[in-house]
Every structure is written in structure tokens, then in C-alpha cells.
Amino acid sequence: MLQLRFRLYQHSFPENSKFSSETLGLIHLDLLELPTLSYSKYKCVIIFLDDYFSYCRVAFLHKKLDVAEAIKAVFWLWSNTTSHSVKHLHTDNGGEYMTSELQSFLCEQGIVHETSTSAKWSSRMVESNAARKGTIYAT
User: Quick one: pLDDT at residue 76?
Assistant: First the structure.
């Protein structure tokens, strides 16, 4: 009979300065398009995630152009129900977050808008992906 013994070592992760240290200090946003219209004719869902408490809020949208109004409404609600205000906003590079209306609102409120970098493939990533798939590219 073969008996295996494993020891699990738990190492604490180093502190990451990109995490928020206060409520509403960093909010992550993501917009999802629903595959079919909901019963109430909603087409999109925007998800707000507070980095500090992992509090999640969802807003339903009829169209992508309603993003700015939804963000304004949720941020107004949070600033009036808590003693905190949003400091940083993190989104992807979607065009719905780059409207002049939303950018001017963020500037007025003093909110720093950070975006994810675009996923560009480096040559090393392409090579490792090709090696994993078993395909070789001649250069």
C-alpha cells in the first residue's frame, strides 16, 4: 500500500498597496451585456464592487449609453448614505466609460479614473501559447 504524506505551508502574502484602505476608496466597475432581454426589457448590467468591504451593487440598464447616469446615481446614493465618498474608480477600457459627460462628472467629484491596460500579446506570450498548443511558428 502506497501512502503519501503532504505538508501544506501557508505563507502570508505581502501587502499590496493597490488595495483600498478605506470604504469606497476604490470601486471596480464592469458592464455585462445580457444574452437576452430581461422580463423588464433590461439589456445590460453594471456591477459596482467596493475593494475594501467587497460590497457589491448591481444596476440594470436598458442600453449601454445609460452607464453615466447609473454611476452618478449610485455614487450619489453612497455619498448621501455613508460618510465616505468614492476616491478611485477602476474600469476596463470600454468606450462607455470614456464619455465626456462621465469624465466631467468624475473630475467635478475629484474621483481618479483608472483603466486596465489593454491585453497586448508580447512575443514571449505568443511563443509560450504556441508551445503549449504544439504549434511552431517560423520567423
Answer: 93
Residue at 137 is within a domain: no
Q: pLDDT of 4-28, one tens digit each?
A: 554 545 544 444 456 677 888 899 9
Residue 109 forms part of a structural domain: yes
Using DSSP's 3-state secondary structure scheme, residue 134 falls into coil
| 50 is a domain residue | yes
Number of domains in the chain: 1
Amino acid at 20: S
The C-alpha atoms of residue 90 and residue 102 are separated, in whole angstroms, by 13
Q: What is the pLDDT of residues 64-88, one digit of tens each?
A: 999 999 999 999 999 898 888 899 9
Query: Could you count the other beta carbons within 10 Å of the beta carbon of residue 49?
Result: 16
What DSSP string describes 10-78? --PPPP-TTS-SSTTSEEEEEEEE-SS--TT---EEEEEEETTT--EEEEEESSGGGHHHHHHHHHHHH
